[in-house]
């Protein structure tokens, strides 16, 4: 089948002759990829363009750069919390995102398919959690914007490839590389070190491709070497194994509770909770409902399963997941 490329393609292709930097070439190649008609006759050309983009991105990441904040790495937080996915090339982050969220990020069997951070929303029961797909970590360089994205996230999900011959070494290399950037990682229930010079992030590890040969052996070795440092979930983004457990652990990683607000004499909307940090009080719930409520609040009533049924409480009352709060101002 002929490619039938439009004239615009050839005009854009000429720009490659004058492009000097990898960044300029990548931009032109991405334009070409967008112009190419999507049909069977252009499949090889599309694959060639994607491969060239991947190689240029890898080369540009190997080059030392002056530390800078990359505006393209900023992702506005949304939902009940933001979890950034981090991992080596071809670990399956994008496919895992697709399986968890139902979205359709670009998925390919070549390295560096993901070129910039992309946010997606994962539904967990009656809340949504933001998952951020990221480019794979290059062996010799990390852009400052990528590091800042990890530092400001509410949690980090490492994605490892159980089909890799040695995922344990890949994990160790990632941890060392990120430690150089003053980033350290601990499980959700860890006692974090005081006065650390690094930014400490609570972390969960998704060991992907559990349906591949040798996956169980690799998973057992990962747990043997790192079980004292991390919590693991064995998953298959392709087949769906372990995804519900992973969702529960991502929710747990965020250390949040769901609190429902109700007006006096009315029922609470149990489909629209407020997501608050564990340890939050009635005062915090009032602030989440409306900033003016904090000053005007007189008292609150709490419903908590069968334990509390409209009990009057003060501002400092500690809330739990599932509490219904009736604010009186």
How would you describe what is shown here?
With 329 residues, this protein is an alpha/beta fold. The chain has three domains: 7-62, no CATH class; 71-253, P-loop containing nucleotide triphosphate hydrolases (Rossmann fold), CATH 3.40.50; 256-328, Roll (Ubiquitin-like (UB roll)), CATH 3.10.20. It has helices spanning 7-13, 22-35, 43-62, 93-101, 144-152, 167-179, 215-226, 243-253, 282-289, 293-296; strands at 82-86, 118-124, 127-133, 155-161, 183-186, 199-208, 231-234, 256-262, 274-277, 299-304, 308-313, 324-328.
Question: If you compute it from the alpha carbons, what radius of gyration comes out, rounded to the nearest whole angstrom?
Answer: 24 Å
Q: What is the count of structural domains?
A: 3
Please write the CATH class name of the largest domain: Alpha Beta
Proportion in helices: 25-40%
Strand content: 15-25%
Regions with little confidence, pLDDT below 50 for 5+ residues: 62-71
Average pLDDT score: 86
Distance between the termini: 71 Å
Please tally the helical runs, counting DSSP H or I stretches of 4 or more residues. Answer: 10
* CATH fold label of the largest domain: Rossmann fold
Tell me about the largest β-sheet: 7 strands, mixed
Q: Can you name the CATH architecture of the largest domain? A: 3-Layer(aba) Sandwich
CATH H level of the largest domain: which superfamily? P-loop containing nucleotide triphosphate hydrolases
The run of helices and strands is: HHHEHEEHEHEEHEHEEHHEEE
What global shape is seen? globular
Strand runs, count: 12
The helix-and-strand class reads: alpha/beta
């Amino acid at each position: 089948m002929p490619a039938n490329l439009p004239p615009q393609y050839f005009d854009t292709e000429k720009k490659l002759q004058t492009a000097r930097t990898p960044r300029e070439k990548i931009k032109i190649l991405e334009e070409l990829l967008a112009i190419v008609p999507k049909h069977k006759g252009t499949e090889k050309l599309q694959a060639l363009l994607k491969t060239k983009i991947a190689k240029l991105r890898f080369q540009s990441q190997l080059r030392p750069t002056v530390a800078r904040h990359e505006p393209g790495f900023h992702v506005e937080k949304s939902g009940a919390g933001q979890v950034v996915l981090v991992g080596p090339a071809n670990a399956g982050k994008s496919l895992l995102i697709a399986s968890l969220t139902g979205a359709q990020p670009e998925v390919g069997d070549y390295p560096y398919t993901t070129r910039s951070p992309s946010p997606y929303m994962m539904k967990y029961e009656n809340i949504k959690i933001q998952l951020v797909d990221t480019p794979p970590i290059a062996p010799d360089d990390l852009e400052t914007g990528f590091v800042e994205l990890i530092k400001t996230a509410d949690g980090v999900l490492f994605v490892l490839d159980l089909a890799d011959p040695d995922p344990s070494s890949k994990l160790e290399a990632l941890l060392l590389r990120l430690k150089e950037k003053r980033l350290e990682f601990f499980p959700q229930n860890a006692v974090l070190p005081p006065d650390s010079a690094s930014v400490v992030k609570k972390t969960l590890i998704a060991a992907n491709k559990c349906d591949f040969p040798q996956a169980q052996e690799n998973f057992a070795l990962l747990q043997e070497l790192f079980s004292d440092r991390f919590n693991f979930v064995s998953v298959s983004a392709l087949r769906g194994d372990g995804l519900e457990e992973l969702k529960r652990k991502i929710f747990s990683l965020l250390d949040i509770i769901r609190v429902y607000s109700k007006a006096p004499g009315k029922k609470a909307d149990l489909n629209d909770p407020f997501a608050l940090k564990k340890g939050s009080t009635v005062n915090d719930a009032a602030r989440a409902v409306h900033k003016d409520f904090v000053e005007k609040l007189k008292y609150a009533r709490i419903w908590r399963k069968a334990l509390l049924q409209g009990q009057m409480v003060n501002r400092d009352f500690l809330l739990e997941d599932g509490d219904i709060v009736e604010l009186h101002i």
